[in-house]
Amino acid sequence: MRNEPWLLKPQKTKEILQRYGIRMQKKFGQNFLIDAHVPEKIVAAADITGTDFVIEIGPGIGTLTQYLCQAAGSVAAIEIDRHLLPVLEETLADWDNVEVISGDVMKLNLAALIEEKTAALAAALQTGAAVSVKVVANLPYYITTPILMKLLEEELPIDSITVMIQKEVADRMQAAPGTAAYGALSLAVQYYAEPKLAAIVPPNCFVPRPNVDSAVIHLAQRAPAERIRVQDSGKMFAIIKAAFAQRRKTLVNALRNAAELRKPDGTSYTREEAEQALTACGFPLTIRGEALGLQEFANLSDVL
Fold it and tell me: pLDDT of 29-83, one tens digit each?
């Protein structure tokens, strides 16, 4: 039951949408792919193989899902919009290695899903080959950061995350210190993963056309031992959040009385304490957070 993907043609997409009376749900940020080169690039960037269990977030009408089913050993497609479930039942009928899950990925127990599906795939393969877990998604702008941080912070056994998002957000994920795109998202993503831009996708690849370019970005998960060493990552990210809450402030002013940052006794850090920490790290007192890299934030966190 492994047929070739057939849905990714403009007339097929429009036919399916019309036949099921599907209207784009603005609250879900829906845009449907109509360019075959894009899913091919996504599958290639994710390096999907027959020993992979793939979690797809937001399959829509199943356009990318068909390509994933063709390449992967097993696919779980998580769809929040119930109106699309009968569409997916039709468009994915040719593949027996996919399960459509109706629900909100932010509320699902992904650890349990991964444990169940990887065990089932390993048993089905009967080769002893290790099963890898990969996440693939076409994420709407409004929920991009919450979903990605859930996937990264929950320490799930995921090898990589390959997502199509607004290009502006992809730029922020891989931004370097001192650039306009650099911020808290850059540091959070780069702490947990190694980002790499895989493709830029123009608006004419979608129905309806979005107003901005999209991009495919691949996040290779870092094992805990490969991450920047820091005594308390929660404290480090509180410092980062304070530093970029008002990015034009000096770090001294950002840290003192920051709501996100508290000492063990619950009180705020004073200006003097912030200055002492910066001096101990060898930073000038006029430095702003946007000038520090991940290692520098880790050093500051350990000293403060």
Answer: 567 777 888 999 999 999 999 999 999 999 989 999 999 999 999 999 999 999 8
Q: Reduce the DSSP state of residue 32 to 3 states and report it.
A: strand
Name the percent of the chain lying above pLDDT 90: 73
pLDDT digits (tens, 9 = 90+) for 134-188: 999 988 778 899 999 999 999 999 999 999 999 999 999 999 999 999 999 999 9
Q: Which helix (H) or strand (E) holds 198?
A: strand 193-201
The H helix count followed by the E strand count for the chain is: 12, 9
- Residue spans of the domains in the chain: they are 10-224, 233-303
d(CA 154, CA 268): 28
The architecture (CATH level 2) of 10-224 comes to: 3-Layer(aba) Sandwich (3.40)
- By DSSP bridging, strand 32-33 and strand 132-138 are unpaired
Pairing state of beta strands 193-201 and 98-102?
Answer: unpaired
- CATH superfamily for 233-303 is rRNA adenine dimethylase, C-terminal domain (1.10.8.100)
Tokens of 19: 């036949």
CA distance 89 to 54: 18
For residue 29, give the amino acid letter.
G
Strand duo 193-201 + 214-221: pairing: antiparallel
Nearest to 147 by CA among 227, 158, 201: 158
Q: CB–CB of 27/61 below 8 Å?
A: no
Same topology, domains 10-224 and 233-303? Answer is no
Say how far apart CA 304 and CA 165 lie, in whole Å: 36
Q: What does the CA dihedral 252, 254, 260, 265 come to, rounded to 10 degrees?
A: 30
- Length, in residues, of the chain: 304
